[in-house]
Predict the 3D structure of the following.
Amino acid sequence: MVFPDESGFSLVSPLKRTWARRGQTPVVHTSIEHNQRLNLIGAWCLTPAARKVKLHLQSHWCALSGDEVILFLKHLLRHVRGAIVMVWDKHPIHKRKMVTQFLARHSRLDMHWFPTCAPELNPVEFVWTQVSESTASTAPHNASELGTNVRRGVARTRRSQNRLWACLYASELPWKRQRPKRGH
């Protein structure tokens, strides 16, 4: 099972609550240039035996188009063996003619669609939540710092099977299978 999605991160990092001494409100200084955005295309992937979760990602400093979606689909075809059962939202970028033609030419991609406006069903949405949490209040001053912060957040999530499984369990998918025990 493969659950792809897109997300974006900008120089205006999300804020989160913090502790401070009374009367000493923390100040977060941000960059004056807020228009730079790092867009990610990612997929939460469950191995066929449901033993391991992998996270596949690509980043782009441009607005996402059908070209970037196809690049990511090619990446999945190279790195995921066998048939790929993909469950996707109905975002217009996924319905573009060039994307649908690409999907039609690749029978390994077995497409299924989430209901409209149901991000709570997609496990990769919770990957974006974890990355946002780890980049919150970092206030990058330039694109390089933003990229570093996002990569750090992605790496933190990617290297933890517990975090990746938590994305599935946080989703509202009717998932019955119990998580396999370590070493099995």
Observations:
- The chain is about 35% helix and 20% strand.
- The radius of gyration is 18 Å.
- Strands lie at 2-10, 37-46, 53-60, 84-88, 109-113.
